[in-house]
Design a protein that fits this description.
The complex is a heterodimer of chains A (500) and B (223). Chain A has 500 residues and is mainly alpha-helical. Chain A has 22 helices and two strands. Chain B has 223 residues and is an all-alpha fold. Chain B folds into two domains: 74 residues; 122 residues, no CATH class. Classes of the chains: A mainly alpha (500), B mainly alpha (223).
């Protein structure tokens, strides 16, 4: 307990310096600004804004990036509520009741509740991370390559189960993702694999390039297919602060949402995505009058938004303690860390305590910033949302190009985002969801490395994954989850959750 | 990579196929698997004890191929989605815009083709102007104003404030300015000129847009 307090106070002494507070503020602001744009999710936002953090010191850069991430998340919710265009999977649920509230002239209350719920969830999640950081880092030290490999297999199985649509397609996407990660020089022999002889591919495919293509450019192409029918709410935004009645209705959903989101966020394999869906379903089940949902029930905004933010934050845990990015956003964080010479993993906390605890404390600061920035700036976001897409997308296009070019100063990277954009567009048209592919790609290199090491230690004996108790346990969990997901009755429920 | 043509091919011969999208997706996966297997054909697989470079890619490719086969098989058994309509205009102009940016931002040579680096001052507007035509609602005047105002903003933000190593203007342009001007001063002057140009274009063409219609625009700009 003493450690917990002293660690947090160390963190706050770093996070509350004028420079870092300023960076958290700036990060949240530009993150929201870009995240509000329809069709730009957190992944594309971070990839676009990554270069603006290059000139900073590592701690400042990560604090700013985390701010950008929260800002983008909240921006997505703002768009969902005001325009009914969810920027990404996690704000789909917010759009259901949030947009209805907006049509009833209660957009302000919906946005306010989302911000307050998110702030509460963020506060709790910050404490959870601070509390779990030390013990989980200890766990990482008893993990060998065998356990790491099995843990990542489990993460990928979760990703398959949590993906929308056909399970078979999700499995195929994961395999393609891991396959893409093997492009480049072989780790041990130094032989080129599947590079077409292109020198730019020798180091493998750059993650930011892949993510930008699949989530930024492909999204633009997809949006252009639909003729635009954006109905920005014409009604007044109304007052922003929820009244007593609203608070009475929402405080329980906020508590439950926070709990659900925090727990799911820790899971490897993009558990954070499930948080809002689970919270929404739970609130609907618990409500006295479920028919209110979908017609502007404030619980349907408060619960999922809290779950969303709690999950967004606790998904830092696997990255900071085990060095395993649980989703694409965290993979971009890995990229940012390596640019600044930090290798994510258990050693960050021991070798670089100011960075580790400073970042955790800054999460809370970032959440406070969201509250401060967003409530007064709602009017500006509304105006931004009225800009027609025919003017927005060329601007997004140019920002994507500049962002990707600045990462390595390579024009070839810019060409690759066009290529992956086309690939992503084709995948969407064929009904594949690209998110699992990105996760497979993220974990692929680490998996191969650990698989090889584990097999060298066991002298080529595959049963090593079953004779190590922790590894066997993780694989059993993965197998059980997969079997459950394939059971017909559960599958129906899963489809319902995602199509609602 | 397979092409959209394969997809539309299966769309025409409906009959036993219950899920054209499944067939198309399966073919895409099979093609990808075949490509990976072909690319790794010369690499050593090694043994489990000492894995070679080809072991993992090969097994993954086989997995991808099997998923593709399963998708195709299910497409004959289970009812599924039809193929969505493809548009060519959107992807074409978006890609063309990105490529235009890529080849002009820095000196570029591909075989006999060699282009001097023009920097952001040219690459930015090109990306916006070409990419902007991806939508049938595009209007030249709006895109010109947008490119003339956003580019100087990005030049100042990325080149001046953030000091990113991104080429801003071609070397030839530097010769037009007095020799004792620093790079930053030229950058700011260029940005200012562009911003002023944006305002002038905006003001001069303001009255004309209402009666000049570049492209059929049924929405009437009410969005």
């Amino acid at each position: 307990m003493g450690d917990f307090v002293s660690n947090l106070s160390l963190g706050f002494s770093v996070a509350l310096t004028l420079q870092n507070v300023g960076l958290a503020f700036l990060g949240c602001l530009v993150g929201t600004l870009i995240g509000v744009l329809p069709g730009v999710g957190p992944i594309a936002t971070i990839a676009m804004l990554l270069p603006i953090t290059f000139g900073l010191d590592p701690t400042g850069a990560l604090i700013m990036l985390a701010g950008i991430y929260y800002g983008a998340q909240y921006g997505g919710s703002t768009t969902a509520i005001l325009v009914n265009i969810p920027g990404e999977a996690t704000s789909v649920v917010t759009a259901l009741d949030g947009h209805q509230m907006a049509r009833q002239g209660r957009a302000g209350v919906a946005l306010g509740m989302a911000a307050i719920g998110s702030f509460f969830a963020g506060t709790v999640a910050t404490l959870v991370i601070a509390a779990l950081g030390v013990p989980l880092t200890g766990l990482a030290l008893i993990f060998g390559p065998t356990e790491y490999f099995s843990l990542m297999v489990m993460g990928l199985v979760f990703a398959v189960v949590l993906a929308r649509g056909s399970i078979l397609k999700a499995i195929a996407m994961i395999l393609v993702g891991v396959l893409l990660s093997t492009v480049g020089l072989d780790l041990e022999t130094g032989e080129e694999r599947m590079t077409f002889g292109l020198p730019i591919l020798a180091d493998g495919i750059d993650f930011a390039v892949l993510a930008m293509g699949i989530f930024g450019i492909a999204e633009i192409m997809r949006n252009l297919d639909h003729t635009e029918t954006r109905d920005v709410v014409r009604q007044a935004i109304g007052r922003l602060l929820p009244n007593r009645q609203d608070f009475k209705q929402s405080y329980r959903p906020v508590l439950r949402g926070t709990l659900i989101g925090a727990v799911l966020g820790i899971l490897p394999g993009n558990g954070a995505v499930l948080g809002p869906f689970a919270a929404y379903t739970l609130e609907k089940k618990l409500a006295k009058d479920p028919s209110r949902f979908g017609r502007g029930a404030i619980e349907g905004v408060a619960g999922p938004e809290s779950a969303n933010n709690a999950g967004a934050q606790t998904s830092f845990i696997p990255l900071l303690t085990l060095g395993i990015p649980p989703n694409a956003v965290m993979a971009l964080m890995v990229g940012a860390m390596t640019i600044h010479g930090i290798i994510p993993g258990p050693q960050v906390m021991t070798k670089n305590p100011t960075l580790f605890w400073g970042m955790i404390a800054s999460m809370w600061v970032g959440n406070l910033m969201l509250l401060i920035i967003n409530l007064p700036l709602v009017g500006m976001w509304v105006r931004l949302l009225k800009v027609p897409y025919r003017l927005l997308f060329p601007a997004i296009l140019m920002f994507c190009c500049i962002g990707i070019y600045s990462i390595n100063s390579l024009p070839a990277n810019v060409m690759f985002i066009a290529f992956f954009g086309l690939v992503g567009y084709m995948l969407i048209k064929f009904g594949f969801e690209p998110a699992p592919m990105l996760l497979g790609f993220v974990l692929g290199k680490l998996m191969e490395e650990n698989l090889r090491r584990a097999l060298i230690i066991s002298r080529g004996d595959m049963t090593t994954f079953l004779t190590h108790p922790i590894s066997a346990g993780l694989l059993v969990v993965a197998a059980v989850v997969l079997v459950i997901a394939l059971l017909p009755s559960i599958r129906k429920g899963r489809d319902e959750v995602f199509t609602e | 990579m397979s092409t959209p043509r394969e997809g539309s091919g299966s769309f025409e011969r409906r009959g036993p196929v219950r899920s054209p999208q499944g067939v198309a997706g399966g073919i895409l996966l099979l093609a990808l698997a075949a490509l990976a297997l072909w690319l790794t054909r010369d690499l050593d697989q090694g043994t489990l004890n000492a894995m070679g470079p080809a072991m993992l890619p090969r097994w993954l490719a086989i997995g991808v191929g099997l998923s593709g086969l399963a998708l195709i098989a299910f497409a004959f058994i289970r009812e599924g989605e039809p193929l969505e309509r493809w548009s060519v205009r959107g992807p074409f102009f978006v890609i063309a815009g990105i490529l235009a940016f890529a080849v002009t931002i820095r000196d570029f040579s591909f075989g006999p083709l060699a282009l001097p680096g023009l920097g952001l001052v040219a690459a930015g507007p090109l990306a916006i102007l070409i990419g902007g035509y991806a939508t049938p609602e595009a209007r030249l005047r709006d895109l010109v104003v947008l490119s003339l105002s956003l580019t100087p903003f990005c030049m100042v933000l990325f080149g001046d404030l953030l000091n990113l190593p991104i080429p801003i203007f071609p070397q030839a342009l530097a010769g037009l300015f007095p020799a004792d001007w620093s790079q930053k001063a030229i950058l700011r002057a260029t940005a200012a000129v562009m911003a002023v140009a944006a305002v002038i274009v905006f003001l001069l063409t303001r009255g004309r847009t209402s009666n000049r219609v570049d492209v059929a625009d049924h929405s009437g700009g009410r969005i």
